[in-house]
Write a structure and sequence with these properties.
Strand content: 25-35%
Radius of gyration: 19 Å
Distance between the termini: 52 Å
Helix content: 25-40%
Largest sheet: 5 strands, antiparallel
Number of domains: 1
Structural class: alpha+beta
Length: 128
C-alpha cells in the first residue's frame, strides 16, 4: 500500500511540476502594444529586457522568451517614434516604448516598432 501511495504522490508531483508557468520576467518592461478591436476584444503584448514576453488575447495568456536576435531587432527600431495612425483603423494599436507616452493610434509603418509588435501578437515571432 505504501508503494502505491508513493507512486501516486510522485505522479502528482510530476504533473504539478509540468504545469508550472514560465517564470515572471526579471527585467524592466521595454515595449508594450495593445490592440483594441471593433468587436470589443483587447489584446496586449509586453516585452521585457530579459526577452520574456507576455501576450494576452482576450482572456487567454501566452508566455514566450524572444531570442537575442529578435530583441536586437526590436531595439534597433525602438529609437524611432511610432507614426500616428487613424482612429478608423481596426484594430486600433497603441504602442509604448520604455515608459515613454503611448502613441495611440499607431500606424503599422513597415519595419516600425508598431509593425513588429503587431506581428509578434499575430505570430509570436518577428520572422517566420
Amino acid at each position: 500500500m505504501n508503494l502505491r501511495s508513493l507512486a501516486f504522490g510522485l505522479a502528482a508531483l510530476l504533473f504539478v511540476g509540468g504545469c508550472t508557468s514560465t517564470p515572471e520576467p526579471s527585467a524592466s518592461l521595454l515595449y508594450t502594444a495593445t490592440r483594441s478591436w471593433s468587436n470589443g476584444m483587447e489584446e496586449r503584448v509586453e516585452v521585457y529586457a530579459d526577452g520574456k514576453t507576455i501576450m494576452t488575447h482576450g482572456d487567454y495568456e501566452e508566455r514566450i522568451t524572444l531570442p537575442a536576435d529578435q530583441m536586437a531587432e526590436l531595439a534597433a527600431v525602438a529609437g524611432t517614434p511610432a507614426d500616428p495612425g487613424s482612429n478608423s483603423d481596426d484594430p486600433i494599436l497603441g504602442v509604448t516604448v520604455s515608459g515613454s507616452p503611448e502613441v495611440r493610434p499607431a500606424a503599422l509603418t513597415p519595419g516600425s516598432i508598431a509593425e513588429l509588435l503587431n506581428r509578434l501578437l499575430d505570430s509570436h515571432v518577428l520572422h517566420e
